[in-house]
Amino acid sequence: MKKIYGIGIGPGDKELITLKAYRLIKECDYIFVPMSKGKSLAKTIVSEYTEGKDVIEIEFPMGEKNAIRYRNAAEKMDHMMKDGQTAVFLTLGDAMVYSTYIYLMLELQKLDFQVETVPGITSFNAAASCLNMPLTMKDERFCLCDRFVDEEILKRVDSIAVLKVNTNKEDILNKLEKHRFHYVYIKRCMLPEQKTLYDRHAILADDDYMSLIIARKVGVRSGE
Amino acid sequence: MKKIYGIGIGPGDKELITLKAYRLIKECDYIFVPMSKGKSLAKTIVSEYTEGKDVIEIEFPMGEKNAIRYRNAAEKMDHMMKDGQTAVFLTLGDAMVYSTYIYLMLELQKLDFQVETVPGITSFNAAASCLNMPLTMKDERFCLCDRFVDEEILKRVDSIAVLKVNTNKEDILNKLEKHRFHYVYIKRCMLPEQKTLYDRHAILADDDYMSLIIARKVGVRSGE
After folding, report:
1. What is the pLDDT at residue B220?
2. Looking at per-residue confidence, does A4 or A223 come out higher?
3. Which of A43, A100, B116, B186 sits CB 3.0–4.6 Å from A33 for a disulfide?
4. Predicted confidence band of residue B185 (pLDDT cuts 50, 70, 90)
């Protein structure tokens, strides 16, 4: 049997990976990383820990249908590995939160790989810590979503994180203001280029794929 | 100035702390851990990393008013430390998610401590990885809450984690079933005593403070 560890390597700070991730990267036979548009941020983040080892970039070509691209990637990994070998597949943030790995995992399971998922620090947990902003205090509720916010949910939660906000920021900010949320926009959280914006106009003017909005209802106790 | 690092040490597996947490524990002048009923799980989890160092247990007595217990703890830490020294305060899971540390941080900030929060792996991220169960796939929404679930939210999210379920399990399970969620009950996630229950009667019969329910809507794509 072949074993894959799907590992969340956290938001981008090379120190925010777990001891388990570090050990598995050192011990495994193969290191796979996702590549997008010729780049692999995951590969850059762990580069200090992979010295002397081959890092194999796995592409998920945008033009292909989902079912095919993940199937092809899983088959490529299958062909490279021998029975009894282990590999890690590294993914940003947490492995079970909006990750390419989830789709890959489903294909790997069909090919009879043994799969173990190792959790990582999410971008929204990192953002909350970075701002000393509580995500949830006793009896509070938190919602995680991507791109769109739902007004009925806004009425019923105390804090929210919206990932991948670059396509729809104005609508998101309008709804957050209507429902009296304090919001913060963070791009490239925990990377050297990290930037934190509070001003509506500055947020609307920015355009970065790796950005998120984290918000907390006004009147709710705050750490800031 | 005195500096406190509030550090999330993850769900209980000593390998699921970050490299940053590990380094700060080794480098700091003082290690503070929360103690409850004479025990400190945080102290046990990191015991291998604190050898040769004093670990100072901080109690938050239940009888006292919140404002007073956190104020007293912050003052105790203030009295022990000298200017220019650093300390870590270790908390289970992530530091900004339902933690005692949040309340302590607010008091430390009033006493002019420099505070830096270091994120950790949450119990619900760990549970999702452990089950290979996606928390969120593209365009999905996730809700985090403690003790109670809100039916309007259940209609509008794809997955949910409910922490501290021991007081109110039957109501939670009824609502999850009504809104067609597949649920899993995990206690002591990532600790040696970890147990995973799927059966309604077994879940209702169990009684453990460190338990959570993680659930995903039926019909939503699943990793299981």
Report:
1. 59
2. A4
3. A43
4. very high
* Rounded-to-integer distance, Cα A139 and Cα B66, Å: 15
**CA angle A174-A175-A180, nearest 5°?**
100
**Closest chain B residue to the Cα of A109, Cα to Cα:** B223
pLDDT value for A167: 83
| CA nearest to A100 within chain B | B137
Among A5, A19, A27, A105, which would you mutate to test the B interface (most chain B Cβ atoms within 10 Å of its Cβ)? A19
Chain B residues near residue A14 by CB distance under 8 angstroms: 19
Nearest to B19 among A15, A97, A115 (CB): A15
Q: For tokens 């989830």, what's the residue?
A: A102
Q: What is the pLDDT of residues A85-99, one digit of tens each?
A: 999 999 999 999 999
Give the closest residue to A121 by CA, choosing from A135, A137, A106: A135
> Which 3-state string (H, E, C) describes chain B?
CCEEEEEECECCCHHHCEHHHHHHHHHCCEEEEEEECCECHHHHHCHHHCCCCCEEEEECCCCCCHHHHHHHHHHHHHHHCCCCCEEEEEECECCCECCHHHHHHHHHHHCCCEEEEECCCCHHHHHHHHHCCCCECCCCCEEEEECCCCHHHHHHCCEEEEECCCCCHHHHHHHHHHCCEEEEEEECCCCCCCEEECCHHHHHHCCCCCEEEEEEECCCCCCC
Question: Among A134, A138, A144, which Cα is nearest to A224's?
Answer: A134
Residue A223 pLDDT > 70: no
Contact A117 B130 (CB under 8 A): yes
Residues 100-159 (A) with a CB less than 8 A from some CB of B: 102-103, 105-106, 109, 115, 117-122, 125-126, 128-130, 132-148, 150, 152-153, 156-157
Q: Which residue type sits at A221?
A: R
A46 touches chain B (CB under 8 A): no
CA distance A56 to A151: 43
Q: Do B147 and A139 touch (CB under 8 A)?
A: yes
Residue of A nearest to B22 (CA): A19
All structural domains of chain B, each given as residue ranges with its CATH number in brackets, are 3-118 (3.40.1010.10), 123-217 (3.30.950.10)
The 10s digit of each residue's pLDDT in A29-65 is 999 999 988 899 999 999 999 999 989 999 988 777 7
Could you read off the pLDDT of A114-148 as tens digits, one per residue?
Answer: 999 999 999 999 999 999 999 999 999 999 999 88
Chain A residue with CA closest to B100: the answer is A137
